Amino acid sequence: MIAALGISNGDNLKFNVKDNKVTIEKEVREDEEFFKLLDETFTEYNQALKRMVDL
User: Fold this and answer.
1) Under 8 Å between Cβ of 13 and 26
2) Which of 2, 19, 41, 50 has the fewest CB within 10 Å, making it most exposed?
3) For residues 41, 43, 49 and 50, what is the CA-based torsion angle, rounded to 10 degrees?
4) What is the pLDDT at residue 50?
5) Domain that holds residue 36
6) Which residues are paired to 9 by β-bridges?
7) pLDDT tens, 11-29?
8) Looking at residue 6, what is its pLDDT?
9) Is 48 helix (H, G, I), strand (E, B) or coil?
10) Which residues contact 23 (CB under 8 A, 6 or more apart)?
11) Torsion angle, CA of 43/47/50/55, rounded to 10 degrees?
């Protein structure tokens, strides 16, 4: 379950209860989302620069 959720020591978990069912998910902090978006943006930027060099 730990590997499936991608959690590690210190991560926060969110427990959701609905219709007598409990789901558990890793709570994602806003700064994690920001850094993920930033990483994706820089990866795309780097790929674009590499394509320009290859022209």
Assistant:
1) yes
2) 19
3) -160
4) 92
5) 2-54
6) none
7) 889 999 999 999 999 887 7
8) 82
9) helix
10) 15, 16
11) -160
